[in-house]
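TICKET: design request
STATUS: open
ATTACHED STRUCTURE:
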């Protein structure tokens, strides 16, 4: 093994350790905060915030030109003019999201006033427009985050990134809990998020992060970002409609209270998924990109080494959650959230497809972002066609089963595209499946022991 490969391996391990430790601590904060806040606030408030977050995430994705992916993948990703131009674009994007959010907020207000939105749905909540307007400021704040954060990601220097994320999250969470304890209103969640965003932006500009950002507009850089980012832009739009599609559709079908219960199940089901996806995007994407630039013949080997580990973890977790979902919810939450139990069990199926999503990062690393868009589009079409139909005939249970099963469509699509455009080892693709049964047996055993 040459020195370059050894160096990459060491940096990957160090970066992965930071991301893993940071995300576990972050999930611990989220989980602990969720347990406390669900006792201080009613489920309806979490349903309203779910809609607010969906709208903001949607606008962020609809304006995504892949700045991070550009900086990580581009050969010019460390040049000052390139970075400063990217920062300028990021600021413009932040204010664009802020402005559009205010327009949406005003539209929701008037639709409510004229009776076009049912008060029995999350979209018809009278507090939603004002909360959305206040939350819009977080987009403008995030636009000023130092572009050095993306450069640190490119270099796999994850320690500083992780610390900024944890500190900003902790500050925001403490504020939320104190406010909720005193007032028991939804503004705890709103202002806590604003405080967290502000803290991250300030910390990103400290001296130990990197050189000071400056306004710049280099036409060559803009052209490169747009050329590569056009497929990222399309994938981001479809990705938003897919990743937030469950809440987008359910928001118009069920009450804010039921959406809040679903949000709890979704949070628990995606805890492991978020961790692995964080590793995939923050660590493994830079690794695959660097490998493709410097030693493309090793790409297949590295891809499957990563896949083995991801599949083992996610499929084992899927088995445990499927067997213990109802017990976990009943133990951690009060009776208002009991319906989240069967939802968690069903949503655990989505974990099976996580490893196959590494194919998307491989497509990006090899300069084929169009293929990622194809995967997302196929799953998106399935979700938007089947969820309303299933809800009509089978209610909430039918809708949740569609959300869970459509994730497996992404799995099939990734196999087809990897075989056609890059590489595939058929046997290796299914090595992780036995871990589902192992996880289920472990979960069932634990449940029986604890119940007795």
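STATUS: resolved
RESOLUTION: sequence designed for all positions
ATTACHED SEQUENCE:
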């Amino acid at each position: 093994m040459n020195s370059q490969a050894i160096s990459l391996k060491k940096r990957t391990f160090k970066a992965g350790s930071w991301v893993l430790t940071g995300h576990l601590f972050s999930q611990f904060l989220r989980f602990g905060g969720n347990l406390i806040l669900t006792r201080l606030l009613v489920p309806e408030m979490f349903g309203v915030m779910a809609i607010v977050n969906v709208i903001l995430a949607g606008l962020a994705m609809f304006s995504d030109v892949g700045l991070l992916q550009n900086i990580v993948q581009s050969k010019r990703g460390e040049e000052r003019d390139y970075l400063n131009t990217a920062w300028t674009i990021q600021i413009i994007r932040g204010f664009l999201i802020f402005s559009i959010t205010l327009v949406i907020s005003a539209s929701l207000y008037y639709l409510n006033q004229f009776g076009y939105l049912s008060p029995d749905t999350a979209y018809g909540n009278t507090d939603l427009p004002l909360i959305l307007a206040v939350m819009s400021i977080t987009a403008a704040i995030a636009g000023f985050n130092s572009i050095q954060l993306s450069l640190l990601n490119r270099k796999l220097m994850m320690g500083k990134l992780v610390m900024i994320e944890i500190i900003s999250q902790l500050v925001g969470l403490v504020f939320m809990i104190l406010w909720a304890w005193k007032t028991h209103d939804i503004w705890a969640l709103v202002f806590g998020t604003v405080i967290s965003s502000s803290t991250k932006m300030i910390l990103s500009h400290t001296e130990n992060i990197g050189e000071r950002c400056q306004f710049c507009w280099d036409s060559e850089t803009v052209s490169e970002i747009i050329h590569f980012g056009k497929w990222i832009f399309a994938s981001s739009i479809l990705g938003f409609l897919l990743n937030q599609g469950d809440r987008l559709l359910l928001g118009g079908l069920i009450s804010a209270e039921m959406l809040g219960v679903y949000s709890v199940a979704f949070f628990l089901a995606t805890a492991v998924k978020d961790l692995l996806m964080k590793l995939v995007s923050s660590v493994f994407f830079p690794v695959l990109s660097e490998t493709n630039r410097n030693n493309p013949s090793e790409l297949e080997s590295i891809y499957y080494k990563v896949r083995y580990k991801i599949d083992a973890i996610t499929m084992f977790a899927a088995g445990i959650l499927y067997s213990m979902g109802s017990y976990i919810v009943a133990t951690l939450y009060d009776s208002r959230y009991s319906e989240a139990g069967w939802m968690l069990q069903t949503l655990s199926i989505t974990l099976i497809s996580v490893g196959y999503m590494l194919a998307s990062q491989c497509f990006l690393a090899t300069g084929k972002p169009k293929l990622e868009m194809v995967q997302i589009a196929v799953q998106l079409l399935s979700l938007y066609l089947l969820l309303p139909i299933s809800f009509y005939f089978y209610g909430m249970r039918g809708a949740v089963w569609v959300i869970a099963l459509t994730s497996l469509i992404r799995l099939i699509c990734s196999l087809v595209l990897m075989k056609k455009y890059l590489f595939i080892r058929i046997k290796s693709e299914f090595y992780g499946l036995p871990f589902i049964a192992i996880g289920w047996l472990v979960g069932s055993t634990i449940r029986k022991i604890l119940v007795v």
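CLOSING REMARK: The chain is about 80% helix and 0% strand. Residues 369-421 form the longest helix (53 residues).
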